[in-house]
């Protein structure tokens, strides 16, 4: 019995050693280690995880077709790789990425259609459309006796009636809301319709809420300064709270906050500064868009602690965040583009005329909304249109 017991011990130890070696090998293999038979050693490698929206796009690595998204490409030697992701009917995505040993490099490519569908959101004209600070609604004026001030909710709903413009107040003999400018409060539940004389002086300031229909105009000209001052204090308090996250070098490099008013879509009057410290935080509050003191636009990534310098834009009219916090919507003369926050992959999604630089992304990220006449006859009022990106 003694020899048999000895053999059992040897077999048990051997099996345990084999299992340990296999387990170690699996762990090293999963971490990207691969044997190098030329040097008789082990090489450390990295991985690329390539995702795209929509999925099913071809992935090229250094011009070589590797797979289709979503996919993982492993056992890559450390270094710089040229990655291209493309799908029929969409603009390609390209970037040089650095693969590090033992690490996973994740790519999330957002592909935009080459021939997007354009649909009208209004048909009766939209004058001075103004986006609410929470990006959930637009107010605009409509002329004539049947016109007034309308609110367009920005919701993705299967019920069409929830997406139609809703009348908040009608025009009167003395008030034509198509001639008003609109100023939102910080909470996006009230706004002022400001009417001006030809010399720029105020003739009326009507306060309305964004919920009720058939509202009776209430002029708050006597208390306008106090109302706007209260709104400004709220904005400054919010700005100070968010500003704690910004590093001092970004605050120091930011141009005068007054310049930021030029790109605000929450008011067309300049009476309220929605970005008092000049810092425009992304929707997830992890990145900061700001105008550098050298007149260039930058994006500071709070997680990576990297300051990205955006390319020069031609006749910039507006710049705003895309809802995913990884892209920006850029409106230049005659074209609308979407660009990544590191300044790469600038994609033109619309070329043509549009009005007043009124361009922004739908909060669901499914559409870009703009004010234009498209190809209608001269004199036809501009309407709101959506460019479908899905």
TrEMBL record:
Instruction: Please provide the record's keywords in A-Z order.
Output: Membrane, Transmembrane, Transmembrane helix
Classification via InterPro entries: 6-blade_b-propeller_TolB-like, PEGA
The organism's superkingdom is given as Bacteria
- Chain ranges of the PEGA domain: 46-110
Which segments cross the bilayer?
Answer: 7-30
Q: Name one Pfam family in it.
A: PEGA
Protein's recorded name: PEGA domain-containing protein
**Source organism per UniProt:** Candidatus Curtissbacteria bacterium RIFCSPHIGHO2_02_FULL_40_16b
């Amino acid at each position: 019995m003694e020899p048999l017991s000895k053999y059992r011990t040897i077999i048990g130890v051997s099996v345990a050693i084999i299992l340990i070696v296999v387990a170690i090998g699996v762990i090293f293999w999963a971490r990207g280690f691969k044997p190098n038979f030329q040097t008789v050693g082990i090489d450390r490698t990295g991985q690329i995880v390539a995702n795209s929206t929509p999925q099913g796009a071809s992935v090229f690595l250094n011009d070589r077709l590797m797979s289709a998204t979503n996919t993982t490409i492993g056992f890559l030697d450390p270094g710089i790789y040229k990655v291209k992701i493309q799908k029929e009917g969409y603009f390609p995505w390209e970037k040089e990425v650095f693969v590090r040993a033992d690490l996973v490099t994740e790519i999330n490519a957002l592909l935009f259609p080459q021939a997007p569908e354009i649909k009208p959101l209004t048909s009766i004209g939209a004058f001075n459309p103004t986006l609410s600070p929470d990006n959930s609604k637009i107010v605009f004026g409509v002329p004539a006796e049947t016109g007034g001030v309308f609110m367009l909710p920005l919701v993705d709903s299967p019920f069409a009636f929830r997406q139609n413009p809703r009348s908040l107040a009608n025009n009167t003999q003395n008030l034509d809301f198509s001639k008003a400018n609109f100023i939102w409060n910080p909470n996006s539940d009230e706004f002022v319709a400001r009417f001006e004389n030809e010399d720029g002086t105020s003739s009326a300031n009507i306060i309305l809420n964004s919920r009720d229909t058939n509202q009776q105009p209430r002029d708050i000209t006597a208390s306008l300064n106090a109302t706007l001052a209260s709104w400004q204090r709220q904005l400054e308090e919010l700005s100070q709270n968010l500003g704690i996250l910004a590093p001092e070098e970004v605050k120091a490099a930011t141009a005068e906050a007054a310049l930021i008013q030029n790109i605000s879509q929450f008011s067309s009057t300049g009476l309220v500064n929605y970005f008092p410290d000049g810092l425009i935080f992304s929707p997830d509050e992890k990145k900061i868009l700001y105008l550098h003191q050298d007149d260039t636009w930058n994006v500071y990534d709070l997680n990576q602690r990297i300051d990205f310098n955006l390319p020069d834009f031609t006749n910039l009219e507006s710049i705003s965040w895309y809802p995913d916090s990884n892209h920006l919507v850029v409106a230049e003369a005659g074209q609308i583009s979407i660009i990544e926050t590191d300044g790469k992959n600038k994609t033109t999604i619309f070329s043509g005329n549009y009005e007043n630089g009124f361009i922004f992304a739908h909060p669901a990220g499914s559409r870009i909304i703009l004010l234009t006449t498209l190809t209608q006859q001269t004199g036809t009022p501009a309407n709101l249109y959506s460019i479908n990106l899905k």
